[in-house]
Amino acid sequence: MQKKERVLVAMSGGIDSSVAALLLHHQGYEVIGITMKTWDYESSGGTRRTTGCCSLDDINDARALAVDKGFPHYIIDIREEFGDFIIQNFVDEYMAGRTPNPCVLCNTHIKWDALMRRADQLDCQFIATGHYAQIRKENNRFIISKGLDTNKDQSYVLWGLSQENIGRTLFPCGGYTKTQIRELACHFGYKELSKKGESFEICFIPDNDYRGFLKRKVQGIENSLSDGLFVDKHGNVLGKHQGYPFYTIGQRKGLGIALGYPAFVTHINPKTNTVTLGTEDDLQSTSMTVNHINLIKYPALLKPLEVMTKIRYRDKGHLSIIHQENEWVHVKFFESVHAVTPGQSAVFYEDNDLVGGGFISQ
């Protein structure tokens, strides 16, 4: 079989990226595998073994598959650049009273840039990942659309990618369901791979305890912020809290205060170290502003556009009208939306196409 173009495949050792590599190898691409070490368990200081990428077992699994199929495999250590940017941003956002989404920033500023640099060094025309999303070219633009498996679709975390990077990216898993990916692993002779579980934690917080992570990263955070106040929407004091970074908009559990009615975090003020509590009705919004915009489907929004807006990864989406004003997008929802959270990503869709996205400002 005549070899197709050379492609650099990001291999975490998990089932999706492994099957992505197997599919491309089967299709005749000249595959080079690469595993990016972004973090390690020893550095996290957590209380549980790592269950996501970067474990030694996962790295060994990725290398073993490459050796078995006869294509090269490299390991690159990007912990320093990952930590300097992603982890510092994660801490800074919580200290600013916002709730970050590190996976979006990692894809945009770390993983794709690191992959593209290595792809150029290795003379690869494309890079590939195991993301559940699809790419096509239309009207001279590369467009990302949702993966076939709507339960696994990962287009939400890809809104920050540039046209140049999208044009050199392949998503081999995007046209399959998760069940089919497991079946393909068996078909290719990797039954044990097909049984691999998945990780939903942030890779540098394997125990899923972001509050503990902040306490380890910000010296004295507990002592300096523990005298903060819970207040109601009128400013009346309700009690003391443990420090504003340990709360997120919409949070109900773990508040440590009893008011006689279900209370939710509705606002966080880092300047005064106050956390506002209210009812579920106080969390409803009909509009929001989004900044740091990146548009994928269109070069610019020249007129108001009707879209489905997702305000978090597992959000079903909300019908809305968006219009662009310089580097901002203003969103008007057709119906009220629950718990709009500053710092999270707002991502816009036309049917299955990713229009673009940005970070929720207010």
At CATH level 2, the architecture of the largest domain is 3-Layer(aba) Sandwich
Radius of gyration: 22 Å
Strand order of the largest sheet: 12-15-14-13-16-17
Spans of 5+ residues with little confidence (pLDDT < 50)? 47-52
Give the C-level CATH assignment of the largest domain. Answer: Alpha Beta
The biggest beta sheet reads:
6 strands, antiparallel, barrel
Fraction of residues in helices?
A: 25-40%
Find the CATH topology of the largest domain.
Rossmann fold
Structural description of this entry:
This protein is an alpha/beta fold and 362 residues long. It has 3 domains: 6-194, Rossmann fold (3-Layer(aba) Sandwich), CATH 3.40.50; 225-278, Adenine nucleotide alpha hydrolases-like domains (SH3 type barrels, Roll); 283-360, Elongation Factor Tu (Ef-tu), domain 3, CATH 2.40.30.10. Helix content is 27%, strand content 29%. The chain is built from 10 helices and 17 strands. The strands form 4 sheets. It has a 6-stranded antiparallel barrel with strand order 12-15-14-13-16-17. Helix 1 crosses helix 7 (178-187) and helix 4 runs antiparallel to helix 5. The protein is globular, with a radius of gyration of 22 Å. The model is unreliable at 47-52 (pLDDT under 50).
